[in-house]
Amino acid sequence: MTIDRHPPVTDWATDFDHTDPVWVNNPFPIWDELRETCPVAHSNRYGGTWLPVTHEHVSAIAYDTEHFTSRAVVVSEARPGPNDLPAPIGVAPPITSDPPFHAMARRLMLPAFAPKKIEALEPFTRDLCNELLDALQGKDVVDAAVDYAQHIPLRVIAKMLGFPAADADYFRHIIHLILEEGINIAEEDDIRLLEGQSIDAYFDAQIADHVANPRDDLTSFLLEAELDGNKLMHEHVRGTMLLILVAGIDTTWSAIGSSLWHLANNPADRQRLANEPELMPFAVEEMLRAYAPVTMARMVAKDVEIGGCPMKVDDWVLLPFPAANRDPEFFDRADEVVIDREENRHAAFGLGIHRCLGSNLARMELRVAVEEWVKRYPDFELADPSAVTWAAGQVRGPRSIPVRLPA
Amino acid sequence: MRVHVDADKCQGHNRCYSLAPELFDVDDLGNAVELNDGVVPEGLEHKARLAMANCPEYAISITE
Q1: CATH number at residue B16
Q2: Which helix (H) or strand (E) holds A100?
Q3: Which ranges of A180-312 does DSSP label H, i.e. alpha helix?
Q4: Range of the domain at B46
Q5: What pLDDT, on the 0 to 100 scale, is given for residue A136?
Q6: Counting one residue from A and one from B, how many pairs have CB atoms under 8 Å apart?
Q7: What molecular function does GO assign, one term (chain B) (predicted)?
Q8: Most A CBs within 10 Å: which of B6, B9, B18, B19, as the mutation test of the A interface?
Q9: Nearest-CA distance from B11 to chain A in Å?
């Protein structure tokens, strides 16, 4: 099924590929060099893709909803097809929506993810972290990504949607397909044709169950919700479920994993967090800045020039918020993790109207996950640095982090 | 000292509310509003500056 369309990159300014193993393993030097030499790179891969790497350009594009559409936000061989809901709605509202529909679809979801709603999930999350940590007790080497980080957002999102916790493996499979395998699948074998029926059938079963037994969760909320006096279209409900599943799990799992990976590598930071728990809010933001998991994408809606580069309709544009977060023009000591950095206007959750809907949830999960881990294991180290693997694609985080726990 | 949230710029990042809940609240949509007409009680000036300096959207301003 997967065809190798990705020969090794030899020139990052003219032929970059965000799935190249060099990028996947360590993208920071690539962005640093491009910022100096070619701050808006271009590649013919994926049918034509641009890559801005400065905070100035990334934010300019994020704010410009006239020239850039969110109709598709994952760069892949396939452009959105004739079967996909077109702009301004898109396949997974509101992330794939443009103004003016976007504001309505987003407004609908915002209350469910507002800070005070999310605070109520903190005890559940803390208990879950402790349950996972209990299961690690007595082991010498554990995988901080597989045995800990990944389970936290999977279980929290399943609970929010009202899906069975036992289906976690299935969600993992879907997410992997969309975010990693999906990149290589061309239009003719569109992922939704291959897997779409199974995802849609799963969502339909959950919807039917919620229609029969309404309860206090996001699925029942979506089924009851109205836009302009009408219930949401069935495709809108399923699209938003897909969005929550895909955007709410891999991302947070990546942020937790990167933070634990950093702490495993940096005993001084570990020590400070264990001794000065009041630093945690600043440390969490710094981890989000330095290891922002999410690179978004846009398509060009109207021809436009950015940094002197002529972007044409239907070109892809990667929006690497992680690169903006490492721009030395915007941040002091941009390439260092400053665990007590007080001024941190980072863009890990995006900028403008598409600010991550789940940012309050993600931040809570990350803080609680790191707090509980550090409380239990203030001392731990990488068991084998070469065994750490990173996810390829637009969500970056460690997928395996073998760590040695103190006896 | 007074803080002010520009409602047109605020996108609900919630940085001000988490850094300075004494000075800001958030509404049901998660957007920020200043408390007490924005008046910063004595001793909270540092928190006000932190909130301003951490807003990714530059939505917070301070007048002295």
Answers
A1: 3.30.70.20
A2: none
A3: 191-194, 196-212, 218-224, 234-265, 267-275, 280-290
A4: 2-63
A5: 97
A6: 58
A7: iron-sulfur cluster binding
A8: B18
A9: 6
- The span from the CA of A361 to the CA of A153, in Å, is 9
Q: CA-CA distance, A386 to A366, in Å (whole number)?
A: 25
**Cross-strand partners of A52:** A40
Q: What does the DSSP 8-state code read for residue B13?
A: -
Query: Strand A296-300 relative to strand A68-69: parallel, antiparallel, unpaired?
Result: antiparallel
Contact A347/B at CB under 8 A? yes
Interface test with A, best of B13, B54, B62 (most A CBs within 10 A): B13
Q: Rounded distance, CA A389 to CA A171, Å?
A: 20
Q: What share of chain B is helix, strand, coil (3-state, %, to 5)?
A: 30, 25, 50
ipTM: 0.97
Integer Cα distance of A206 and A86 in angstroms: 25
| Nearest CA distance, A347 vs chain B (angstrom) | 6
Q: Which domains does chain A have, with CATH numbers?
A: 12-404 (1.10.630.10)
Q: Are A22 and A9 in contact (CB under 8 A)?
A: yes
Tokens 């990334």 correspond to A58
What SS3 state is found at A389? strand
Tokens of A182: 């999906």
Q: What is the mean pLDDT of each run of 10 residues along chain A (407 residues)?
A: 72 97 97 97 97 98 97 88 73 89 93 95 98 97 97 95 90 77 54 60 94 96 92 90 89 97 97 94 98 97 97 97 98 98 98 97 98 95 97 94 93
A365 and A342 Cβ atoms separated by less than 8 Å: no
Q: What pTM was computed for the model?
A: 0.94
The pLDDT profile of chain B, 64 residues, written as one tens digit per residue, is: 999 999 999 999 999 999 999 999 999 999 999 999 999 999 999 999 999 999 999 999 999 9
Residue-wise DSSP of A340-382: T-------TT-SGGG--TTHHHHHHHHHHHHHHHHHH-S--EE
Q: Which long-range contacts (CB under 8 A, 24 or more apart) does A193-199 make?
A: A194/A1, A199/A174, A199/A242
Domain total of chain B: 1
